[in-house]
Amino acid sequence: MTDPTPNASADAPQMPVMAAQTQAASAGVESESQLPLAPYKTLSEEVLRERIEAVRNHFGEELLILGHHYQQDDVIEHTDLRGDSYQLSEMAAGSSKCRTIVFCGVHFMAETADILANRPDRVEARDGRKVDVLLPDMAAGCSMADMAGIRQVEAAWADMGEIIDTEQVIPVTYINSAASLKAFCGRHGGIVCTSSNARAVLEWAFERGQRVFFFPDQHLGRNTALTMGITEEQMPVWDPYALEMGGNEDAQIENSRVILWKGHCSVHQMFRPEHVAKFRADHPGIKILVHPECPRDVNDIADVSGSTGKIIKTVQEAEPGTKWAIGTELHLVNRLKAEHPEQEIHFLSPVVCMCATMYRIDLPHLCWTLENLRDGNLVNQISVDEETTKWSLIALERMLAVK
Ligand code: 13P
Ligand code: SF4
């Protein structure tokens, strides 16, 4: 069985583990249908592996197991395709032969897969058959996505509409958000972005409106807009818990170019400028590579900033012997370290930060989900309602069309 301790980085094995949790996970919510999972917890890794592979062989191309780069290695081993959020969306959108997608990632990713894999043209091409999307653990959420609820976003929209023309505001939601927020963007002329296309999406938005309302990640919004010459002063932060105007003076909203939602990733906010300074002092020539969900003070001083896909590509293309301190989720950094012994790779923080909700997907959950599928039971199916799907799809298709 997998040790609950993450594959600790050689740089920081004894440090406390800081983990991102969703509200659901921290409240210990577990779907009732998961109670029969217990026997799987007692199986050895070897047995779990064999049983998972048996189900994969049974279904062949009808089953697609997708895995986000932050998944643990023993889960990644059983995936057909792995990628960052954007790549996984494209894979789901392109799926033609499969009948079921098992998503080893978090809830918003599985929702996106359900919406994209079941686009009307795809369903028609499959003679009306929909693809079922399963998430091995329903408590695999995203704490950042939980920071913006649809009612809060609608209330913010109505409030700002008292002083600015919202016809001229383009809502942009990071893909790390509930489908209801994507639908909000679809309804209001907006769009979805991922960390790999955020700049192109903001450019798309500014071709259509004067301002952008960006949620839920303030850091991705700010870091991206700064590269476009938008200043911090033009980016007020909207606090959904503030009593008026998201905690801003009217003038701040009137003078804004990008209104940033007060949300963040609990994992990436752990990286600090002092970590960068220490690595630079201790390892002359080291390059700092971070995800744009990191706060501005880290992102600004990094050598390279980019999505998980870009982080991987940057390391793959570097000269042997290059030294890196990488600021993103621990499992990915450890995998890069193992796959690139020709380079010197460090984890940027002295604290072991991992995405605890991604980590909920493990071999017992995967095996349980797959064996139920083989036996004709769909467990933990993610199915977005029709109305939400219709509007989310509009915002997602706008994103996929932006190059
Ligand atoms: P990517 O878009 O880089 O896959 O990031 C997803 C994510 O959740 C990062 O925290
Ligand atoms: Fe959400 Fe952060 Fe985990 Fe990504 S790493 S899924 S943003 S909590």
TrEMBL record:
The UniProt catalytic activity note for this protein reads: iminosuccinate + dihydroxyacetone phosphate = quinolinate + phosphate + 2 H2O + H(+)
Keywords in alphabetical order: 4Fe-4S, Cytoplasm, Iron, Iron-sulfur, Metal-binding, Pyridine nucleotide biosynthesis, Transferase
Write down the PANTHER family for this protein, in alphabetical order: QUINOLINATE SYNTHASE, CHLOROPLASTIC (PTHR30573:SF0), QUINOLINATE SYNTHETASE A (PTHR30573)
Q: What is this protein called?
A: Quinolinate synthase
Q: In which pathway does it act?
A: Cofactor biosynthesis; NAD(+) biosynthesis; quinolinate from iminoaspartate: step 1/1
The record's Pfam families line, in alphabetical order, gives: NadA
Q: Which cofactor does it need?
A: [4Fe-4S] cluster
Biological role: Catalyzes the condensation of iminoaspartate with dihydroxyacetone phosphate to form quinolinate.
**The organism of origin for this protein:** Rhodopirellula sallentina SM41
What's the top EC group for this one?
Answer: transferase
Record GO biological process: 'de novo' NAD+ biosynthetic process from L-aspartate
Annotated positions binding iminosuccinate: 68, 85, 174-176, 195, 291-293, 308
> At which positions is [4Fe-4S] cluster bound?
142, 265, 355
Name the domain of life this protein comes from: Bacteria
The yes or no answer to whether the keyword Cytoplasm is present is yes
- Chief location of this protein within or outside the cell: cytoplasm
Q: Fetch the Gene3D superfamilies from UniProt.
A: NadA-like
